[in-house]
Specification:
Rossmann fold; six-stranded parallel beta sheet; 190 residues
């Protein structure tokens, strides 16, 4: 069974992370989810539900969701010897992106990302910020040079989205594409 880590930070756009987790669980993939404290707060604000309710809805009928505490550096996902297929940080704040870019692993999310980089495993970062400063862009460039996929939450409009769900599905579909997971979440070109 594939194991994929999903990190959620305090950037706006937690619906991307929640939708990705749902899609992975639907495909019988073991999901290891870790949220920053601000990620939980933003999720509660944007989803208009408390974190426990959101998690319980995700866990319903899915035994493949494993939750990890952001401070637990003894978690299996903190070690390179724990085999995972990939990690996606969605949405990714510029603070978390900067920490990862500079090798700072002071919490489980950043440590798991650092493990993916050092083990040459797929790491996808979905930044959700605008405008971007030179510092943000340099941090993204450093990560790209290290083999990280930078997949900004920039939806396409050629498929004429009719709802927020369509826009979210476009980004989540592109993430699944990067993970080499077949999906039909959005209308493709051509």
């Amino acid at each position: 069974m594939r194991k994929i880590i999903v990190g959620v930070t305090g950037a706006s756009g937690s619906i991307y992370g929640i939708t990705l987790v749902k899609q992975l669980l639907k495909r019988q993939i073991e999901v290891h989810m870790v949220c920053t404290e601000n990620g939980k707060k933003v999720m509660e604000y944007e989803m208009e539900k408390n974190y426990e309710t959101i998690v319980n809805e995700l866990k319903k009928d899915h035994i493949n969701l494993k939750l990890h505490n952001i401070e637990d550096l003894f978690s299996p996902i903190a070690s390179g010897s724990f085999k995972t297929s990939a990690m996606v940080i969605v949405p990714c704040s510029m603070a978390t992106l900067a920490e990862i870019s500079n090798g700072i692993s002071n919490n489980l999310l950043c440590r798991a990302a650092d493990v993916c980089i050092k083990e040459k495993r797929k790491l996808i970062i979905v930044p959700r910020e605008t405008p971007l400063s030179t510092i943000h862009l340099n941090n993204m460039l450093n990560l790209s040079k290290a083999g990280v996929t930078i997949l900004p939450a920039m939806p396409g409009f050629y498929n004429r989205p009719e709802s927020i769900e369509d826009i979210v599905n476009f980004i989540v579909g592109r993430i699944l594409d990067e993970l080499e997971i077949d999906n039909d979440l959005f209308k493709r070109w051509g």
